[in-house]
Structure formats: C-alpha cells, structure tokens
Amino acid sequence: MRKLGKALFLSLISLFLIQVRAFALTFVNWNVANRPNNSSQRLDMETVFRDIGRVDLLLVAETDSSSTFATRTALNNAFNTSSYRFRTASADGGGDRTGLFYNSSTLSLVGVSQLTSGLIHPTLRGLFRPVGASSTATDFYAYAVHLKSGSSNSDENIRASEASIIRNNANTLGNRNIIYGGDFNWNSSSEASPSAYNVFTSSGAGQAFSFFSGGNWRDNSSFLRFHTNSPRGAMDDLFDTQLVSSELFDGFGLEITGGYSVLGNNGSHLLNQPITTGNGASASVLSALSRFSDHLPVVVDYGIVGSNSRLTIASTTVPEPSVTVVGFGCVVVFGFYSRKRRR
C-alpha cells in the first residue's frame, strides 16, 4: 500500500534488518519504443543511462532487430565498457520484441527461454546469477513482460489471460527469486475479473508483490509518482513496473535493498502534462526522457544479503511518500529517493 503524510511512523512487526555485502545491483525496465534508430536517439539514451548511474539488468519492451544493437552500444558507451550482452524474444506480428540486456561483469546468464503461445508479445525469461555468487540463493528469474494494450473489455480480458500464462509458468519454478518487469498496459486493478494485476498478485509459488496498491491508477493524482506514460505528452498512466516474489524480501540471498524510482518522476510535474513540467531530474535528462520514448524507465536497487541477517521487531520513521511491499505477515518499507550514481 502507499502511505502519504509529512512523516509516517510505522511499527514493523517483521522488519528485516539486513547486512548487505558490497554487491549492489540496479535493475531497470523500460519500453524503449523500438529506439534508438539514429545517433541523436542513442545520445539521449546514454544521457538517461548515465543519470541512473549503472545498469546491471535492463528489461525492455518494444525493441527490434536494429535497436537492440544500438541499445547495447548506448549501454557500453554510457559506462565506458564492452561488457553488455543481450538476448531477445521472437518478434511479434509487428516486429516488436521483448529483451534482456545485462552487464556480464556483474551477472551471468544461466539460461533463457521464451513464452509465445497465447501471447501477443512473446515474453522472454532469463535465469541469472550474480558473478562470484557462492550460493544459488542469489539466482533469480527475470521476465521481460509486454501485455496487450488498449482499454476495451476485450483488451482487459486478453491482458488477464496473458498474465495467467506468465504466472502459470512462474508457478512451476517453485519458491524462487522472480522479477516480472515491463509494460503491463493496465489501467486499474479491477479492469477485468480477475484482472491482470490480481492474477500476478494472487497466492501461489509465483505470487508477485507490487510497490503500489490496487486501484484506479489512470488519471489519478494519488499515483502520480508511479505514472510512467507519457513523458512527452500526458503523464497519467501506470503502465510500467517491476513486480517481485516474496523471496526478494525474505532477508537472505538476493534482496530489494534500495528504493523504487520512476526516473524523472518525483511527483512535481502536473497531472496529464509532460514530465518536463516537473523537476524530477536535470533539464537535460528530462528533455532526453521526453524525446526518447513515450514511457519512463523504472529503477529498483537490489543487493546480496548475508546469512547472518536477522529478523527482529523494530520501528522506523519514513519520510513522505513511501512505498511498501506487503505480504506473508511482514511489511517492508522502501522510499522514493534521489538515486546516487554508481560506477
């Protein structure tokens, strides 16, 4: 659920106090609109990547056979390296693909597969292992998701069906670290019965937890800081996010260790106006975001947590606004934050 107020005092009955090793990972999801296609777009993408600071995993929607190579070039240029690799799913009927780009100096791709049957946009699933990890508890599955767009009843039902296909696949993995990242194209948590959101978050082995509550997200100022579409026109849709399994906040292995950020969106922009009406990033970054794509990237920081983590009763004060992930009797609180660049 999302909490608002000047300051929020929470008694966290099960707050995991964690000891994080010096191994931080930044995962980003972004609908890149089949770009970059030219040098100007590539430079805009590099500007965005540099503002993030480092990208260990990039889950993309709407890439194609040419923009994938340009995206890899932008990643390598932004961070002065040659270590980025990528895999993409098969093209859909319009030539779009989902994809996974990863920094091979920090992540190893253990396996990859794709889901195609019943999906308009094939979903790519990767199994990753942090480089140098000594335990499979740090392995994780990442799904690059792109659900059906549109607001008709048919569109909503198709999204729910697609969510069921992805979720059924995840259920077969057991209790594993799972990240669903991408463009979900949904408007509310009740748009179908069940909705795509409810399919992902229903109980079971592959159950997902979100950084925001259910509700009517479109054109709703209560979810302003979660909106990702469209930075160049009307910021009013919560299409893009990362959903995570409970194993990513169980106190051991790969964990969510930082906050949740929609890059460029700190809630200062006007609802239904361009992202450039706010001050969520420098003017150059906001301009690059608005030029490059009709979606903003979502950034979440993860890390490897040691086995001596401990479960305790604690309380904390969280500045407004905050994000909570709730489930299995524990409440884990993360804040929106200004990201510090990492190299």
From TrEMBL:
Pfam name, any one: Exo_endo_phos
Domain Endonuclease/exonuclease/phosphatase: 29-235
Signal peptide (from-to): none
InterPro entries in UniProt: Endo/exonu/phosph_ase_sf, Endo/exonuclease/phosphatase
Segments traversing the membrane: 318-337
Annotated keywords: Membrane, Transmembrane, Transmembrane helix
Protein name, per record: Endonuclease/exonuclease/phosphatase domain-containing protein
